[in-house]
Design a protein that fits this description.
- It comes from Kordia antarctica.
- The chain crosses the membrane at residues 63-81.
- The structure is a single chain.
- The chain is mainly α.
- The protein has one domain (2-81).
- It has helices at 2-21, 30-51, 67-81, and strands spanning 57-60, 63-65.
- Helix 1 packs antiparallel against helix 3.
- The longest helix is centred in the middle third of the chain and has 22 residues, at 30-51.
- 5% of the residues are buried.
Length: 82
Amino acid sequence: MILLKLFACFLIVSLFIFSKLQAYETRISPKYKTYFGMMTSILKPILNVFSKFFKPHKVGNGLALDTTQFVLLILLLLILMI
């Protein structure tokens, strides 16, 4: 159970960093691109599964929020509460 909670913490931190850097992926220095690639390889498959069930929420003209990240965050927080 402790390993699951540690993995959930890792995923929460990774999700935060991923959400902040995703728009600037092409400008990340080569030193950190490896770490970002590792986070992407872990998070993208998980987010792709959730994107089949949860569509982006329109918040303006041509602007939408990706709800899959919110759903993943809520699930990870629930794991930590167990």
